[in-house]
Write a structure and sequence with these properties.
The chain is α+β, with helices and mostly antiparallel strands. The chain has one domain: Gcn5-related N-acetyltransferase (GNAT) (Aminopeptidase). The protein is 29% helix and 35% strand. It has four helices and seven strands. The chain has a seven-stranded mixed sheet with strand order 1-2-3-4-5-7-6, sandwiched between helices. The radius of gyration is 15 Å and the shape is globular. The relative contact order is 0.16.
């Protein structure tokens, strides 16, 4: 397993990982809505790699490349932004074939190291409130649900859970 900063050449693989994970995880959402959302949200415009405080990491795992949906060796990624004393984890996905193998945990731990370099004191993570897998993951990483919010997709509002931890 290799975790490294994302480059502009990784966006096709990032989008493929996101699409596969969204379709596997978010049964509550229409398939076509998932495809449109992934196409809109996972681009170099919405995840600017050079923006101050931005951390985008990818996980390469060549042993799993044949089991994924054309992502080359990239089987997961995360995207966070550090601003002031707080960092927000906006995205964290691992393809279904690679889940349960510690890849997400290792990626998350590496992300926290990267965020500590930005002198943040706390980290928040956001996901759909209906995502129990995400809730269990963040709770296992020491996060607690501290708030709720809403995310809007194509005019529809979905409940969002906000998890937080101190560094």
């Amino acid at each position: 397993m290799n975790i490294r900063p994302a480059t502009g050449d990784d966006f096709a693989a990032i989008k493929a990982v996101a699409r596969e994970a969204w379709h596997d995880t978010y049964d509550e959402l229409d398939e076509a809505l998932i495809d449109r959302t992934v196409d809109a949200w996972y681009t170099d415009d919405t995840m600017p790699l050079e923006a101050p405080g931005t951390v985008v990491l990818v996980v390469e795992e060549s042993d799993l490349a044949d089991e994924t949906a054309g992502t080359n060796d990239i089987v997961g990624f995360t995207h966070a932004v550090a601003q002031g004393e707080t960092a927000d984890i906006l995205r964290m996905y691992v393809v279904p074939a690679a889940q349960g193998q510690g890849i997400g945990t290792t990626l998350h731990e590496r992300l926290l190291v990267e965020l500590e370099a930005h002198d943040v004191e706390g980290v928040r993570a956001f996901d759909f409130a209906f995502n129990d897998v995400s809730r269990r993951f963040y709770e296992s990483m020491g996060f607690e649900q501290t708030d709720t919010g809403e995310v809007e997709i194509e005019g529809e509002h979905y409940d969002e859970a906000v998890y937080a931890t101190e560094l």
